[in-house]
């Protein structure tokens, strides 16, 4: 039986969420309003490091509409982790559990010490401002270098060094020293906030069966379910998480943010709906940022432009709490190894606590900071040796058949050299570079080139897997259930295309697959970039199972119809 020609992928189609978005019917978390819903606002620290000595909330409690005020003394004394990583039974590979719902020991400006619940949002805000606190201030640490000083004040029990690691292919320093030219560099990357359009919002209420339902703007609904259970010490099965439309995440919502607090509040207030919504200022103070890196690098290059080896020493600033922590720094070192793999390579990193807002996942997951240092050193080497910056990259770029020098993982497809060649031609690189070099005057225009490598993995566990479940309806449409989260990247549409591609059908019949309902099933992959690749494979595999069963039933019931090749919609389906 020959496979039918693919007809669903590779062609333009309307996004499955297009109509909802352009008509305004798409509901984001803050659009949810429920009868009797209350609002919660935090009381935050005005200092970056210290202890709350005493708290006075009498004025706040006297305001009409205030339902409750909770402080650090009222919440469970259970530390929990917030990073969007899969759970593991290996304690050494788990994320650091250093968070509490509220804390007396504040570790950054804006740390939460109390929360007010009121009938309306304005009353909650006003009451939060009326809570007065006496503070005992401690020394403030803002850089990893200061955090590692012998006399540094400890931000957490156990010291300010969260974790450290080293990766190497051997005696890299000797290889660098033996090269014709050595270059050294000191680089710093800044703290950056994601600034997604939608703020961080969570709404929670208790069902009739005492199960807590949470609606949240999140990238990781299934991990939210687990972390809420851990933070409140309740069975994970007692938590249900709904992810509606999401107005951007970029990694910030790959952390569990306000969901545990929303769940705690509804459990303490008889199950009434409680919404916790952060302002834009609070998003800067109390969500996540990109890790600031301090990098010292060395590189050895021969006169012909061959990269012999390089080493990087990284200090990562994770802020007041671990979040994704050392996973960012170590993963970045592994990701960059694919860029120029035919050389010696050493990477050491330390991740430190400071009194800045917590850093977490952000697009690139450690790679942008590390690649910046590597590409800067390679440019310096090209300038010193008189080699064209594009040419030096072409001589060292990853090619098919190369392997990551740290892990030995083979590169099965690579288009970097072809990309550089095509880019050089389209950009007219030689012409523009010559024009820039001949400029005079104070105002000049420059051109440059840089390469980037990224693999979707974390650290220390780099395996990414995905699952999908397909349900066929009586009318022939298919429901796709998967843990992958649609947050604007088009995952739902791609999955619908993949199902139609493997299921078969054309015209109107196929369009019904594009618009099939989409449900959450199980989460394994966490990042936007890998979602389509992994989950599409899972969908294709499940389509194969459906097709085999469908053809089997067709042969038994309608033996002649499955062999009718005149109608494309009656041809045998292709197993994915």
Question: How would you characterize this protein structure?
Answer:
This protein has 576 residues and is of the alpha+beta class. It is 29% helix and 21% strand. It has three domains: 18-22 and 464-570, Aldehyde oxidase/xanthine dehydrogenase, molybdopterin binding domain (Aldehyde Oxidoreductase, domain 4), CATH 3.30.365.10; 32-138 and 195-286, Aldehyde oxidase/xanthine dehydrogenase, a/b hammerhead (Aldehyde Oxidoreductase, domain 3), CATH 3.90.1170.50; 162-193 and 300-437, 2-Layer Sandwich (Aldehyde Oxidoreductase, domain 4), CATH 3.30.365. Strand 16, helix 9 (326-336) and strand 17 form a beta-alpha-beta unit. Helix 6 (221-232) packs across helix 7, helix 9 (326-336) packs across helix 10 and helix 14 (491-503) runs parallel beside helix 16.
Strands of the largest sheet, in order across it?
3-5-1-13-10-11-12
The level 1 CATH classification of the largest domain is Alpha Beta
| Shape estimate | globular
CATH topology of the largest domain: Aldehyde Oxidoreductase, domain 3
Query: How many domains comprise the coordinates?
Result: 3
What class do helices, strands and sheet pairing give? alpha+beta
EC number: 1.17.1.4, 1.3.7.9
GO molecular function: iron ion binding; xanthine dehydrogenase activity
Organism: Escherichia coli
InterPro entries: Ald_Oxase/Xan_DH_a/b, Ald_Oxase/Xan_DH_a/b_sf, Ald_Oxase/xanthine_DH-like, AldOxase/xan_DH_MoCoBD1, AldOxase/xan_DH_MoCoBD2, AldOxase/xan_DH_Mopterin-bd_sf, XdhA_XDHase
């Amino acid at each position: 039986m020959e496979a039918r020609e693919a007809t669903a992928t590779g062609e333009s189609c309307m996004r499955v969420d297009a109509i909802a978005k352009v008509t305004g019917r798409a509901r984001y978390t803050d659009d949810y309003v429920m009868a009797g819903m209350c609002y919660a606002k935090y009381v935050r620290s005005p200092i970056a490091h210290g202890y709350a000595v005493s708290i006075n909330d009498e004025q706040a409690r006297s305001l009409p509409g205030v339902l409750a005020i909770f402080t650090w003394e009222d919440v469970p004394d259970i530390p929990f982790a917030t990073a969007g990583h899969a759970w593991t039974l290996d304690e050494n590979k788990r994320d650091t559990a250093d968070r509490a719902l509220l804390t007396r020991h504040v570790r950054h400006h804006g740390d939460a010490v109390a929360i007010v619940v009121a009938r309306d949002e304005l009353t909650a805000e006003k009451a939060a401002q009326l809570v007065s606190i006496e503070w005992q201030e401690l020394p403030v640490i803002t850089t990893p270098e200061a955090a590692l000083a012998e006399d540094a004040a400890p931000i957490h029990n156990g010291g300010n060094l969260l974790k450290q690691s080293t990766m190497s292919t051997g005696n890299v320093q000797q290889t660098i020293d033996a090269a014709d030219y050595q270059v050294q560099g000191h680089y710093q990357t800044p703290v950056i906030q994601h600034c997604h359009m939608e703020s961080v919002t969570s709404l929670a209420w208790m069902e009739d069966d005492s199960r807590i339902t949470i609606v949240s703007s999140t990238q990781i609904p299934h991990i939210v379910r687990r972390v809420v259970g851990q933070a409140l010490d309740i069975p994970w099965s007692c938590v249900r998480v709904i992810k509606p439309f999401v107005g951007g995440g970029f990694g910030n919502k790959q952390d569990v943010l306000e969901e545990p607090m929303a769940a705690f509040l509804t459990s303490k207030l008889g199950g009434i709906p409680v919404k916790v919504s952060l302002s834009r200022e609070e998003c800067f103070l109390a969500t996540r940022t990109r890790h600031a890196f301090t990098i010292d690098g060395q590189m050895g290059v021969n006169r012909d432009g061959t990269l012999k080896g390089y080493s990087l020493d990284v200090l990562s600033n994770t802020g007041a709490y671990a979040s994704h922590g050392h996973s960012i720094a170590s993963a970045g070192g592994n990701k960059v190894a694919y860029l120029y793999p035919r050389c010696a390579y050493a990477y050491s990193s330390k991740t430190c606590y400071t009194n800045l807002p917590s850093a977490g996942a952000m697009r690139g997951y450690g790679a942008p900071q590390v690649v910046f240092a590597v590409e800067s050193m390679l440019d310096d080497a090209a300038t010193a040796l008189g080699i064209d910056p594009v040419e030096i990259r072409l001589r060292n770029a990853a090619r098919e058949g190369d392997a990551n020098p740290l892990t030995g993982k083979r590169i099965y497809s690579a288009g970097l050299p072809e990309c550089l060649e095509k880019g050089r031609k389209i950009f007219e690189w030689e012409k523009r570079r010559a024009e820039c070099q001949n400029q005079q005057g104070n105002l000049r225009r420059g051109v440059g080139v840089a390469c980037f490598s990224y693999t979707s993995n974390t650290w220390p566990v780099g395996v990414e897997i995905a699952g999908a479940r397909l349900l066929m309806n009586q009318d022939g449409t298919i429901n796709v259930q998967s843990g992958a989260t649609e947050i604007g990247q088009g995952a739902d549409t791609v999955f619908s295309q993949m199902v139609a591609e493997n299921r078969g059908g054309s015209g109107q019949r196929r369009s019904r697959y594009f618009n099939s309902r989409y449900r959450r099933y199980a989460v394994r992959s966490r990042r936007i970039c890998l979602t389509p690749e992994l989950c599409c494979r899972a969908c294709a595999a499940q389509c194969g199972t459906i097709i085999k069963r469908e053809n089997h039933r067709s042969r038994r019931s309608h033996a002649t119809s499955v062999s009718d090749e005149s109608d494309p919609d009656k041809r045998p389906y292709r197993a994915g």
